[in-house]
Structure formats: structure tokens, C-alpha cells
Amino acid sequence: ICNVRDITELIGLEAQLDQVKELSERYYSELIHLRSQTVQVEGLVAESPAMRAIVSTALKVSPTDATVLISGESGAGKEVLARTIHTHSQRKAGPFVKVNCGAIPDNLLESELFGYEKGAFTNAAKTGKMGIFEIAIGGTLFLDEIGEIPLLLQAKLLGVLQDKKF
Prior knowledge:
Layout (H helix, E strand, L loop, with lengths): L7 H30 L11 H13 L16 H10 L8 E5 L5 H9 E2 L12 E2 L1 H4 L4 E5 L6 H13 L3
Parallel strand pairs: 1-4
Antiparallel strand pairs: 2-3
Helix pairs in contact: 2-3
């Protein structure tokens, strides 16, 4: 028995298949590259490479339980970035509590942040008061203008941030 066949067509189809595989791999790598270049997050516009890097870092840190310091000029979008981190975190079901530390008088800021028990000081509420740290449990606390906090309170705040206890 002899089987004679022209394999020219088969060799041509193999070459086409290799070309298609190569193109597919190139398109896939380009797609991955383009996706990494464009950061699409609801409420954010990030077109510059520096801003894309910031948003990418924020999205990487969101699933963790890390404390994040966001610095920048007024109006730069620190709160928007903090909300983005919150909405992509495991704490998204909890509250997002924003406190403008510069707007609260120095003598009230500590009791606002930490709360107090009844009778803790003169004119304290009879029932005491829950602090902002306690209100934000299970969520995210965004302390805006943290540089305005008095140094003594900054030391107490640092202790809370390091120990994650208040």
C-alpha cells in the first residue's frame, strides 16, 4: 500500500498557524501594556505617568490593612484618593470618616478624636462621648490637615497609628 500526498498545503497551514500565534501573543502583550498605562477608577482622572503611578500604588495598598500617608498641596485630590483606597479595601462596607484637623480648636481636638467618659473634665457630657476613632471602627478614618495638630497630640496620634489601639 502506498499513500502519496502533497504536503505543501499542510506546510503552508502550519506557517500560517505560527504567524497567527505570534500575532496573538503580540496583541495580548500590547493589551496588557495598554491596560497598565490606563488606570480607570471611578471618580479619578489619571493621565500623567506620575498620577497613574500614584493611583496604581493606591490600588495596590487598598487590600492591605496598612496606614497610608497622602501628602500634597491643597486641592490636589487627597480626599478623592483616600476614598478610592476606601472603596477598593476590605473596609468599604464600613464608614468613611473625614476629619479636618485644622478646623477643630486645639483644646477640643483630643476629646473629639479619642472621646471621653462621663465626668472626665468640667462640663463633660453626663453620658460621655464616643471619639472619632471609635466611630470609624470597621471603616476608614481620613485625617485632613494633620500637620495642624499640636505636637503633644501628634505624639499620642503616632502611638495609635503604630499600635492600632486607642
